[in-house]
Design brief:
The protein is of the alpha+beta class. It folds into 2 domains: 7-127, Avidin-like (Lipocalin, Beta Barrel), CATH 2.40.128.30; 132-304, Rossmann fold (3-Layer(aba) Sandwich). It contains 6 helices and 12 strands. The chain has helices spanning 7-10, 132-150, 152-169, 188-208, 227-239, 299-304, and strands at residues 21-24, 37-43, 46-53, 56-65, 71-79, 84-95, 101-109, 114-121, 179-184, 213-218, 248-252, 264-267. The longest helix has 21 residues, at 188-208. Residues 307-331 are annotated as: Disordered. Pfam families: Avidin_like. Residues 307-317 have a biased composition (Basic and acidic residues).
């Protein structure tokens, strides 16, 4: 959670929203059910948020923060059935016993309907870990969504890859002693590879009651990533639960821990190859023999689950635009 360093950032009442994630309170009582998750940002008295999941395909919220932490905002969203809605809200905060924030959202839609929704901060202050029960609920929910969006063939492929990974790497150890590193640049192939390996991790947990550490490494490009790439990576991290699951370790390419103690390394660019790249840190592991439909099988999970947004790719040598995922290709 971002450091809360000033009274101006927190407001007079001490409510700071930047970097926090919220979900409906009822999600606590429906283990395994898909739910909407919002990522909040703030700067001074300005705030904005992106939300998705459950019956919401995508949504945005912008607003202003009062000194007492109350948010005056406006939102728009598209539901999973393609219907759009917009309106205004007043979100009144209070503090839970464990330090998290609960928001009472008094909303009014443009069509005249109104109501109150209650959402709670997911992240625990101070980085406290989830209980084993809540971690199980989180993993069940994510696995259910991945199974639906990836499809049977890719889930079976992930099962085969997970089995082969353990056969290759355990050598008398337990799954929890392994670290698997996935490096990607936030592009379409990278997002698919990340979702596939996260599925491998969740399948391992379901079969063995323990699983390997999933270390994700982003930011391998020489130039700073675009806003689109940064947003893709953050949305994927939200949907896949990488910040909540203590067995996931999101890193940037500049982190000194990259490659440290990795038992298997998977990169998006070599996922279908049997050759390890010269710059790769750690032992290469190929998922190419198990994936079911590259390069097009990743599209359903990107479009429907990770909310992936494409950017025009450029040739690293010439700087000119190159063709990517062509609109005319079969999906």
């Amino acid at each position: 959670m971002p450091e809360q360093s000033s009274e101006h950032e927190q407001g007079e009442a001490g409510f700071a929203y930047d970097g926090l994630r919220f979900r409906p309170v009822e999600a606590e009582h429906e283990p395994g059910a898909a739910t909407t998750v919002g990522l909040y940002h703030s700067r001074g008295d300005e705030m904005w948020a992106e939300f998705a999941g459950g019956n919401v395909r995508t949504g945005r919220l912008v607003g202003a923060i009062r000194p007492d932490g109350t948010i005056d905002g406006a939102y728009c969203q598209v539901s999973s059935d393609g219907q759009s809605a917009a309106g205004t809200l007043v979100s009144v905060p209070d503090r839970l016993p464990d330090g998290r924030i609960r928001l009472h959202e008094h909303w009014r839609r443009a069509d005249g309907s109104s109501g109150v929704s209650v959402i709670e901060q997911i992240d625990r202050p101070g980085g406290g870990q989830l209980s084993s029960a809540r971690l199980g609920y989180l993993r069940d929910e994510i696995y259910r969504q991945l199974r639906t969006h990836l499809g049977t063939a890719d889930v079976l492929a992930a099962t085969r890859s997970a089995t082969r990974l353990l056969d290759q790497c355990l050598d008398g150890r337990t799954p929890s002693e392994l670290t698997v590193q996935v490096a990607h640049d936030g592009d379409a192939t990278g997002m698919y590879t990340l979702a596939f390996v996260r599925t491998m991790q969740l399948i391992t947990a379901r079969v063995h009651d323990e699983t390997f550490i999933l270390r994700t490494v982003t930011g391998h490009r020489a130039e700073p990533p675009s806003r689109t790439v940064v947003d893709n990576i953050e949305r994927a991290s939200q949907v896949l639960g990488l910040h909540e699951d203590p067995w996931c370790e999101p890193l940037s390419a500049q982190d000194d821990r990259v490659g440290e103690g990795a038992d298997a390394v998977i990169t998006a660019s070599t996922a279908d190859s049997h050759q390890a790249p010269e710059t790769q840190h750690g032992p290469f592991f190929s998922i190419g023999t198990d994936t079911s439909g590259a390069p097009h099988a990743h599209r359903p999970v990107l479009a429907d689950l990770l909310k992936f947004e494409s950017e025009e790719p450029h040739d690293a040598r010439t700087g000119t635009a190159v063709s990517g995922l062509d609109e005319g290709e079969d999906r």
